[in-house]
């Protein structure tokens, strides 16, 4: 239980999650339209009133900050807390009209909705690093952050930054752009898809889209053994193969379940640029292997097979060597490469027929 210390006795208790705040009614109703309009119920155990705030965005920690704001204490806004505060202020209806009604001498310079909105617009969205921070903080604020357009504004800013700050960065060079791609790859898949979809809608170069997708795959998709050592498992059918997945340090991305991994694969493939030659054969093969291991949809696997088949003609030496090793493993059942090779052969036959 949290008490507001004052010589005036507390007359209202507010429960948020498992914490009860003992406070005063007037400071709250002067800033919170929700509390001002609701009919407060008398407390059964103590004098005064009791109110339980169900599903308040940000929970008890955010409400404690709001409570301090209602009592006139300094408000410390930062990229980590501004999204929960913006959502909670909307929940509590902390509008400017309340300031005009209760602050007759105009000593206040705005209620919490306007303050958090201004901070997001003029401070957070001026920095892509702060924008990433606030977007991550929106993970547990659905649907409030979506309805208030916080997620959309953040994704739009990140997409704009990614589209406009690519300057043919050398592979071994460190730069803000390279850090931007790495940081975008830390987003959860739904937010990442919003960013990449906006990047494509802005007609960014396919190479930019590919770089971002590859960074995301490198972080979230497991590494299937590079040498494609298919090991027959005990009890598996004659034509079935069991793949081993490289063990990695226990991290958030490596602890994802099979369905989550499958969802990530299908999402990434759905936004691959259609232009020929924008994606390396090596990366497509990795997606294909992973898609097979996690039993992605036949249509998705077929799409990847076609892409690989189209790239066989101009595959680099590394890809050719990997294909050779892979085909030795799949001598009985060419699970990954039979149809790509058929696509490749059909293209050769078409070229010969034209000559």
Automatic annotation (TrEMBL):
Sections of the chain in a coiled coil: none
UniProt signal peptide: none
The entry's keywords: Ubl conjugation pathway
Domain BTB: 10-79
Protein's name according to its UniProt entry: Uncharacterized protein
Family as reported in the entry's similarity comment: Belongs to the NPH3 family.
Domain of life of the native organism: Eukaryota
Record InterPro entries: BTB/POZ_dom, NPH3/RPT2-like, NPH3_dom, SKP1/BTB/POZ_sf
Pfam families, per the entry: BTB, NPH3
Residues annotated as domain NPH3: 178-355
Pathway per the UniProt entry: Protein modification; protein ubiquitination
Residues passing through the membrane, by range: none
């Amino acid at each position: 239980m949290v008490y507001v210390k004052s010589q005036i006795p507390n007359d209202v208790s507010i429960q948020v999650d498992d914490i009860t705040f003992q406070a005063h009614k007037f400071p709250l109703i002067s800033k919170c339209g929700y509390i001002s309009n609701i009919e407060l119920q008398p407390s059964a155990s103590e004098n005064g009133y009791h109110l339980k705030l169900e599903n308040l965005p940000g929970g008890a920690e955010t409400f404690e900050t709001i409570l301090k704001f209602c009592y006139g204490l300094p408000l410390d806004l930062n990229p980590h807390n501004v999204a929960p505060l913006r959502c909670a202020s909307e929940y509590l209806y902390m509008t400017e009209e309340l300031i005009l009604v209760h602050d007759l001498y105009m000593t206040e310079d705005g209620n919490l909705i306007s303050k958090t909105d201004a901070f997001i617009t003029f401070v957070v969205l001026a920095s892509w690093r702060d924008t990433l921070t606030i977007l991550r903080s929106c993970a547990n604020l659905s649907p409030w952050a979506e309805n208030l357009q916080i997620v959309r504004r953040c994704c739009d800013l990140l997409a704009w930054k990614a589209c406009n700050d690519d300057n043919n960065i050398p592979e071994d060079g460190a730069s803000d752009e390279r850090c931007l791609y790495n940081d975008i790859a830390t987003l959860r898949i739904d937010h990442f898809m919003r960013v990449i979809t906006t990047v494509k809608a802005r007609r960014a170069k396919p190479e930019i889209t590919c770089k971002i997708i590859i960074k995301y795959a490198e972080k979230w998709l497991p590494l299937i053994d590079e040498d494609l050592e298919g090991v027959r498992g005990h009890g598996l059918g004659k034509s079935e193969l069991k793949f081993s997945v490289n063990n990695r340090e226990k991290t958030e991305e490596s602890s994802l379940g099979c369905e989550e991994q499958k969802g990530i694969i299908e999402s990434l493939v759905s936004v691959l640029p259609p232009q020929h030659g924008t994606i390396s054969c090596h990366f497509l093969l990795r997606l294909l292997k992973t898609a097979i291991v996690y039993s992605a949809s036949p249509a998705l696997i077929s799409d990847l097979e076609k892409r690989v088949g189209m790239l066989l003609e101009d595959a680099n030496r590394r890809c050719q060597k990997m294909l050779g090793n892979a085909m030795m493993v799949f001598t009985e059942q060419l699970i990954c490469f039979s149809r790509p090779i058929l696509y490749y052969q059909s293209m050769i036959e078409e070229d010969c027929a034209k000559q």
